[in-house]
Every structure is written in C-alpha cells, then in structure tokens.
Predict the 3D structure of the following.
Amino acid sequence: MAQWVNKGVKLIQWQCPKDRSSMPTDLWWQAAKAGIWNHVSGQDLFDNGIDTIPVLYILNQPHVVHSFELPNDRSQLSAMSHAYDKIDPLPGIPFWQTLSGPEEILSCLARYPASHLARLRWGQGARIVLGNDIGFYFVSPGDLPPGYLDQVCAMVIAGGSVDSTHVRSNLENAFLIGYALENKKMVGCSCLKHPRKALIHRLKKAAGLDFSGCVERGYTSVRPEYRSLGVGRRLLEGLTARAGKYKVFAIIDEDNLATRKIARWNHTRKITTYFSEKTNKQMGIWMPDGMSPKSMKETP
C-alpha cells in the first residue's frame, strides 16, 4: 500500500463482487489509512436492499469506504444513512455525492487530500468543512442541557461496541460526562462512570486487582466522519484532568488497536490483561501514568 501511495495512487475503484461475503474490508482499511480514497462500484450493490451486511458496512464506515456508485433511483439516498445519522444527521450531504462519479472525485483529489475531501459536505448552496470548529464540554449528568443525555445514550449505542442494557443508568449515575459539538450536532462523547459492584467483583476474580473507589472511563463514541481528528483523544484528556480524587481505569479489548493507540497518546499504560468470560475475549486494563489500583502487582 505504501508503494501505491509513493507512485501517486489517489483513488481505488473497487468492483463489488457478486459474492457479497468476500468484501475486502482489510484492504479498504489499509488504503484509507494510507490516504487513498476508496470508491465501490456496482449498481447492483443495492439490489437486495440496504440492510445487507456489505451495504451496512459501507454506509457505517464513511471514513473507510469514502464513496460508492449511487443507485439509479436517487430516492433511495434518503434511507442510506449510518447509525449515527439516525440520531441526528449532519448538515447537508457528502460533497462527493454532488459529483458525477470517480473521474470528478479524482479531479478533486488532485487539489485536496482524501482526508479533507471526506470531511466536505454540501448544504444550502455552500460547502461545509467538518472538524474546524469543535467544542468540548465536561459536566456532571445533572448539568447536561435538556435532551443531551438522550443524545449521549444514542451515541453510545450507535457505536455498537457495548451492551446497551445498563447504558442509561450508568450515564445517569456517572461522575462526569464529556461530549463534543460542532454545528450544534453531537459528534463524540465519553464519560467517567462509577463501576458496578458486579464489575469490581469480576475484575478482582479475573485480574486480582481491586478497583473499588475508582472511576471507569468508557462509553467513548465518535461519529465516523470525525475519527482521526483527535476527538477521542481530547475527550480522554479532558476527563482524566478532571477526575479529582478518583483514580481512572479503562478496559480495552486487546483487538481494539485504535483505542489502545489513543490511550498511549494520553500517557495511559496497560497494567495487566485478563480473559473475559462475558465477552469471550482477552481484555487489557489501562490506567494513566502514576495511578494504580489497590494491591496491584504490575506486569511488564
């Protein structure tokens, strides 16, 4: 992929295979990280509706699959939104949808990097650039503006990485909630929550560490259009700086490379790992430098 970038590749046009089970998601990720624009072609992409796994992947990852061949019936576009847009859609439409196809997209990529073009939207006859005016806020649950707790709950659930059973009650009883706004739209959130007794017990049993009296950083969710802009990092920094008397810990799936990277950037280190029977995965426990739980035995 690095060789392609060095040779000047700016856009890859992927032809959607008839066998939808073989979508090249790993290659899409690699190309996007390298700064290459991914465009998926194939007007039959939507023949089986928009609820198929390949289409849902494409719609939910606009920062990975940047564009796709639009259906002949443009009325379908109003239904083609990802999970976050169903909460509160961003202003306008993606700018690439105003272009005629890959040739015009490539022409724009001669002037703008893919990361910039992906953040361009078109609304009310003007271009809108996402990410230039993000505000960050950190408040207790009781001080959230009316309706904001509902939005934070919806943002967390839209992220799809947590069990939604206790999301609302955990947020209502959280120590601190952080959220990011732009254009009056919520674009990211995270919180410091008081861990449930059941979790403290599980961690004692699985990792031999006592996290009573600590707060857990979690429920981090960032809209895909705003990823790689430092939103998650800023939320983590702000929450940690405001933890006060509490020590902070986070549980991160060992496969979640993006979140682990953000944690390292914020001077947070993994203190141990354990196997979670609940998720059937290996999990890491992370804490800011200088913090430790009770009776901790550090691992390298």
User: Anything to note?
Assistant: The chain has two domains: 2-129, 135-288. The chain has a mean pLDDT of 88. The two ends are 33 Å apart (CA to CA).
